[in-house]
Amino acid sequence: MKRLFFAAIITSLLFTSCDSDSSFKVTADRVGELTKETQVSELKTIFSNDSVVDQNSGLSEELNVNAIEIYEKGGKQLLSLMPTKDGNPKTIKTVQVFDERYTTEEGINLNSTYKDITEAYEISRIETLISSIVIFVDDINAYFTIDRDELPGELRFNMDAKVTGAEIPNDAKIKYFMIGW
């Protein structure tokens, strides 16, 4: 009887630890506990052990200018959420990841490099901006920003140059990791 009870406890602990790992898993339709159906009104419940800072109020709320930020109790920022402009109830449109524990099924997180992304996913497109390069991965509804400082000299300073995947160094670090639904 004691062995059966002990086995049940071990099994429940294994399932609990697997569930806690999912709180930082990123997929095409999920960022941790968030999905594109998650309502803004549910955030304080979902992140009950963390701090939810909703800067939307008055005119800002109508224009949807400010993001909702999620912090651990210790003060480390986890996520920044941009709600949809239209619709009632309001849901999450974009999630910016600030914590390296948020990881895709292929192991991509904020500590990854351009090479890691290309080995894990097919790049949908690359857009060149003034100070950065944005890499889109449609398979997981993600986009990764790499700072121009990571590029070779001639591309770093030529703001008119259209950067291709072959010109981005393999060791270029991710600056921003975002999911957009």
Low-confidence stretches: 4-20
Q: Which structural class is indicated by helix and strand composition?
A: alpha+beta
First-last Cα distance: 50 Å
Mean pLDDT: 86
| Strand line-up in the sheet with most strands | 3-4-5-6-11-10-9-8
The ordered string of helix (H) and strand (E) elements is: HEEHEHEEEEHEEEHE
Strand content: 25-35%
Structural account:
- This protein has helices at 2-22, 43-46, 58-63, 114-120, 153-157; strands spanning 25-27, 30-31, 51-54, 68-71, 77-83, 92-97, 103-104, 125-128, 132-137, 142-147, 176-180.
- It has 5 helices and 11 strands, in the order H-E-E-H-E-H-E-E-E-E-H-E-E-E-H-E.
- The chain is elongated, with a radius of gyration of 19 Å.
- Strands 3-4-5-6-11-10-9-8 form an 8-stranded antiparallel sheet, with no helix packed on it. Strands 2-1-7 form a 3-stranded mixed sheet, with no helix packed on it.
- With 181 residues, it is of the alpha+beta class.
Summarize the structure.
The protein is of the alpha+beta class and 181 residues long. Helices cover 24% and strands 27% of the residues.
Keyword list:
three-stranded mixed beta sheet; 5 helices; 24% helix; eight-stranded antiparallel beta sheet; 181 residues; alpha+beta
Fold blueprint:
Layout: H1 2-22, E1 25-27, E2 30-31, H2 43-46, E3 51-54, H3 58-63, E4 68-71, E5 77-83, E6 92-97, E7 103-104, H4 114-120, E8 125-128, E9 132-137, E10 142-147, H5 153-157, E11 176-180
Parallel strand pairs: 1-7
Antiparallel strand pairs: 1-2, 3-4, 4-5, 5-6, 6-11, 8-9, 9-10, 10-11
